[in-house]
Design brief:
single chain, 187 residues, alpha+beta, 2 domains
Length: 187
């Protein structure tokens, strides 16, 4: 599911290069013009494990330089493992939610999944964002298929069952959610 002929998320870094080759065929998400998009560099950010930079996506520019008719604005195509605005990856969030639903406290779950490399405040902030995004995630999943019958009473447990039902072979359903639906996990 691509927006305007272009993906919002790709599965692997190699697909970012393919996006660069196809960019001239896409329409700009801001002005709608075709043929004005150019690569504008890789998005590089910090990794969860340390202070070394990792590729998070690629930025594109709707070029208005040298009398081109573009609007001059940029947009990004991200790796599906990236959660926009956070250093934590989709797999870390998946493991975090699994641990909390499994009975661990949020503090213990975050300490175990983040490995001490990210602050506890980040874990609590991400939990709040995920909790607010539950409605968004559920509405997108409902478009893919109805929720399975569940004996679970906790909303998070029901959501995890629905994610596993919609993406049965995915190692990380949060990553598969972003990659297949082309929608950000947190909205």
């Amino acid at each position: 599911m691509e927006i305007g002929g272009r993906p919002r998320f790709v599965a692997v870094v190699e697909q970012l290069h393919e996006c660069l080759m196809e960019a001239k065929l896409w329409s700009c998400p801001h002005c709608g013009r075709v043929g004005t998009l150019v690569g504008h560099g890789l998005l590089v950010g910090y990794s969860e494990e340390g202070a070394f930079p990792v590729v998070r996506g690629r930025r594109f520019l709707c070029s208005d330089r040298h009398r081109r008719p573009g609007c001059g604005r940029t947009f990004s195509v991200l790796l599906a493992e990236v959660v926009r605005g956070f250093v934590a990856r989709a797999r870390t969030l998946w493991e975090f939610v699994l641990a909390v639903v499994g009975g661990a406290s949020r503090r213990a779950a975050w300490t175990a999944t983040a490995g001490g490399s990210l602050s506890l405040a980040s874990g609590y902030r991400l939990w709040q964002r995920l909790s607010r995004a539950q409605v968004h995630i559920r509405s997108w999943l409902a478009r893919m298929g109805s929720p399975p019958p569940s004996s679970a009473t906790e909303p998070w447990a029901q959501l995890l069952e629905h994610l596993r039902c919609v993406f049965p072979s995915a190692g990380c359903p949060f990553l598969a959610f972003q990659d297949r639906l082309q929608v950000g996990l947190l909205g």
